[in-house]
Amino acid sequence: MKNYINFAIFFILLNSCVAQSPVLDIMDNSGFESVRGAYYKDTKNVLNGYDGTYLYNNGNILFKIKLQKNVMTSMNGAYYEDLVVGEYQWIENGVEKVNTLNQLTSTSNLNNIRGKRVLIGNVYGCKDCSPTEKRLRLGFKEATSPHIGEIDIRKTTVNGKEAIIVKIWYTGPIAVKEGAPLPKDGVVMAGKYTMIKQ
Description:
Structural class: mainly beta
Shape: globular
Organism: Flavobacterium cupriresistens
Largest sheet: 8 strands, antiparallel, barrel
Number of domains: 1
Number of helices: 1
Number of strands: 11
Protein name: DUF6705 family protein
Strand content: 35-45%
Pfam family, one: DUF6705
Helix content: under 10%
Keywords: Signal
InterPro entries: DUF6705 (IPR046551)
Mean pLDDT: 85
Strand order of the largest sheet: 3-4-5-7-8-9-10-11
């Protein structure tokens, strides 16, 4: 009987020591803190519908972005998350300045475009967004320079075709205003681009 009690106590203690990995909704994450071992899951599928290749072409500039949703990725093994990731191509006056499209894979998470932040309504600069409209705010890395920034992606329709409105701005190491060229060797200009899904 004594062995049975010791055995039962051992299993109770063992079960209490095994930590459960919580599954947390990305929309419920209140800040930048992360829980070790957690999975920040897109349980409401708010990251869906952005996958695809989008093109902006004004004659002089051809700007292509490819986006996809990657599920349960981890950069460091400390936690997991669902993300929208992307890469891009920039052609200016017929000369390809940068092309990172081949870096996009189903397991990639260190991309030049990446994130999971969903903005709702007209917060953070979308005056003409409806109160329930969702858009993405992701990180953006300029692949030919040390410049980093953010990219807002808003779904729209142009002449009956799926499209996105992309707004890019830089936050460091030197902040750059919309429409201004990047200092040093940067290629992608900060600005607003309407891109048609291909």
